[in-house]
Design a protein that fits this description.
The chain is mostly helical and 160 residues long. It contains 8 helices and no strands. The longest helix is centred in the middle third of the chain and has 39 residues, at 75-113.
């Protein structure tokens, strides 16, 4: 072997093999890390629909030993995916908040214009159909509790 290695230079092709019985057992830390690496590689396009999968990959990563974690070479991809999920959720919440505000404004308009029992009942039904976020806007819109106004109109018209 010494003679062979003395004659090998950079770029020289060498065939290396292990003799039967000299193989090393696979490293369990590397095997565990490889599974997580594969899962991270399978994240694909990050959408809100992938949040569950990404959360599962995070759980798998967190379950690794510290040594196995150090072998995960694409951890940054997981972190980037989690950050993207958080951004997408923020955008979705902002859109839902804007929609809730618009729905609340429509109900407030109904409350303000309700001049008879039928209109008051319609406003109450519309309020009941709002999401909790939209109801919160009706309950405190620019410092005015329009739900209290609605309840007073209901009392005025004998609606329970």
């Amino acid at each position: 072997a010494k003679t062979i290695f003395e004659n090998v230079e950079a770029g020289y092709a060498v065939l290396v093999y292990e003799l039967p019985g000299t193989e090393q057992a696979p490293d369990p830390n590397q095997q565990a890390a490889d599974k997580v690496i594969t899962s991270i590689n399978n994240i694909g396009n990050v959408t809100l629909e992938r949040e569950g999968y990404i959360g599962g990959v995070r759980a798998d990563y967190n379950a690794l030993s510290s040594q196995a974690k150090s072998l995960v070479t694409n951890y940054n991809v997981l972190v980037d995916a989690e950050n993207t999920i958080n951004q997408l959720k923020g955008q979705a919440w902002a859109a839902a908040d804007a929609q809730a505000r618009q729905q609340a404004e429509a109900v407030i308009s109904q409350i303000n214009s309700a001049g008879d029992a039928g209109a008051v009942q319609q406003a109450r039904n519309a309020y009941n159909g709002l999401s909790q976020a939209a109801q919160a806007y009706v309950n405190n819109y620019n410092g005015v509790n329009y739900f209290d106004i609605l309840k007073q109109k209901m009392r005025d018209f004998g609606i329970q």
